[in-house]
């Protein structure tokens, strides 16, 4: 790996240097070839294993834990930081640089009462979801590997420690700006340095002046809206949308008790520690805005409030635009060149009625969408119909849908296109759970198979049909705890 160390050299106020504590008996549990290519790696070698497990120093790495703040479940925590993640620097790859972070590499000055470790099940989940989202074309951080060990760690019971090697275009979070704003009381040096760093590294086309700041914040608003539109379209619940878990670049980030929806349910809560559903599936768009408002608040010392407000006011439109584009494509609605507000409203209503029917009929989100690959909108008969208990409701919807789709010149092509947009395979919680249980018993084959399957979520892969099914009884409504 070849590193540059821009964050380390330019933002000394925003981290503490800290070295990992090695894992005993490290072993590769998972490896992503696609992610490896991003930083010019090819093979999971022994030398790399020693380095990434924290047992040997990696040449060119600096080792630091970042400090940041965050609004957690609505309340502000002034000093959080990487309690169990150590960044090696920015690894250079064929297309850009990627932060390499060892999540679970031991305590840091920000660990508070934590042990700085990650348990194997959470490391595997983070790895799988990063790569799954990427292959679903959702903006996300990536994961290179999971390294397991025999090091015992204590959660509700004794488990073993593991490290997820995360790759991110940046680890800068909304919370970094909140930290700078709140820690310097009236001064703006830190905030400006962070802002300049962010702009020069990630928005090189923007200038470091008032105009550039304004354009930048609008871009953050739009990128966040786009990420959340993707989550809503693919049926992904993040679970812990605290501002310290929001990447400034709009990449899905810091996964904990996330879930892909099985049965569609707007108020679905995936996080055991969120009984009130602050981060329920249907709340995500609103929380995205709330988080952006916290970010805007932190930026008021350096960006005029009018500019911040003007950008925030574009959030909803940006979200709807991205969401509509994704959902029109899933349904096969012909897109308009420049849709009128009325056309958008009608499409939103058509989409909303469909998801509502799905919810009322307790349908599986991914399976239902996948059926569109078999639909012939010119036919009165739809293979979807039998899935609905409320066939009358479906028929009414389907007639409106037929009208909106209109003539299709090449049905086979149209259906193939639907299949390329509605995944057959998603990372259902029960699938992750099965792979984890096997891995805990020393059998890595199911994990490897699942990882492989999720690299082509849109392909039929008929031999893997079983993985596209609804969860068995034990796997329904699995809710993950925050313990990780
Ligand atoms: P999360 O909910 O995973 O984003 O974590 C919130 C904060 O708690 C972050 O600052 C983490 O670094 C920290 N944290 C979580 N688990 C641990 C742990 N086992 N040891 C130390 N810090 C932790
Ligand atoms: Mg976090």
How is this structure best described in words?
The structure is a single chain. It is built from 16 helices and 13 strands. It is an alpha+beta fold. It folds into 3 domains: 3-168, no CATH class; 193-324, no CATH class; 332-461, no CATH class. Strands 1, 3, 7, 8, 9, 10 and 11 form a 7-stranded antiparallel beta sheet that branches. Strands 2-4 form a two-stranded antiparallel ribbon. β7 and β8 form a beta hairpin. α11 runs antiparallel to α13. The longest helix has 25 residues, at 210-234. The protein is globular and about 65 Å long. Magnesium ion binds next to loops.
Index terms:
single chain; 484 residues; alpha+beta; seven-stranded antiparallel beta sheet; two-stranded antiparallel ribbon; 16 helices; 14% strand; globular; binds adenosine monophosphate; binds magnesium ion
């Amino acid at each position: 790996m070849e590193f540059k160390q821009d964050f380390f050299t330019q933002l000394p106020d925003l981290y503490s240097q800290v070295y990992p504590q090695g894992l005993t008996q490290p072993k590769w549990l998972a490896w992503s070839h696609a992610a490896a290519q991003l930083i010019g790696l090819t093979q999971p070698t022994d030398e790399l294993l020693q380095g990434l497990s924290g047992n040997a120093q990696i040449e060119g790495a600096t080792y630091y834990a970042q400090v940041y703040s965050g609004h957690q479940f609505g309340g502000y925590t002034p000093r959080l930081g990487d309690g169990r993640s150590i960044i090696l620097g920015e690894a250079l790859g064929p297309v850009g640089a990627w932060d390499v972070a060892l999540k679970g590499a031991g305590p840091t000055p920000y660990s508070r009462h934590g042990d700085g470790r990650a348990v194997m099940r959470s490391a595997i989940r983070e790895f799988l979801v990063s790569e799954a989202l990427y292959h679903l074309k959702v903006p996300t951080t990536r994961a290179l590997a999971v390294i397991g060990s025999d090091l015992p760690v204590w959660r509700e019971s004794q488990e073993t420690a593991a490290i997820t090697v995360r790759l991110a275009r940046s680890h800068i979070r909304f919370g970094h700006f909140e930290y700078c704003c709140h820690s310097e009381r009236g001064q703006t040096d830190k905030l400006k340095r962070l802002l300049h760093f962010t702009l020069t590294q990630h928005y090189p086309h923007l200038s470091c002046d008032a105009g550039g700041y304004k354009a930048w914040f609008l871009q953050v608003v739009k990128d966040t809206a786009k990420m959340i539109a993707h989550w809503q379209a693919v049926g992904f619940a993040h679970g812990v949308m605290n501002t310290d878990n929001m990447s400034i670049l709009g990449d899905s980030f810091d996964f904990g008790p996330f879930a892909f929806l099985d049965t569609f349910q707007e108020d679905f809560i995936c996080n055991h520690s969120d009984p009130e559903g602050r981060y329920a599936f249907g709340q995500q768009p609103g929380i995205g805005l709330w988080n952006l408002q916290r970010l805007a608040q932190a930026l008021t010392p350096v960006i005029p409030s009018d500019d911040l407000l003007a950008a925030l006011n574009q959030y909803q439109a940006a979200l709807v635009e991205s969401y509509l584009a994704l959902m029109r494509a899933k349904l096969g609605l012909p897109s308009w060149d420049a849709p009128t507000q009325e056309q958008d409203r009608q499409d939103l209503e058509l989409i909303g009625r469909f998801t509502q029917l799905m919810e009322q009929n307790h349908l599986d989100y991914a399976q239902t969408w996948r059926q569109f690959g078999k639909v012939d909108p010119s036919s009165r008969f739809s293979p979807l119909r039998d899935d609905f208990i409320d066939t009358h409701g479906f028929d009414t919807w389907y007639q409106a849908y037929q009208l909106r789709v209109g003539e299709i010149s090449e049905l086979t092509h149209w259906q193939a296109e639907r299949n390329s947009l509605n995944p057959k395979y998603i990372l259902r919680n029960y699938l992750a759970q099965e792979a984890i249980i096997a891995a805990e018993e020393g059998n890595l084959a199911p994990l490897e198979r699942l990882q492989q399957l999720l690299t082509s979520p849109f392909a039929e892969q008929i031999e893997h049909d079983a993985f596209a099914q609804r969860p068995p009884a034990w796997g329904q409504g699995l809710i993950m705890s925050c313990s990780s």
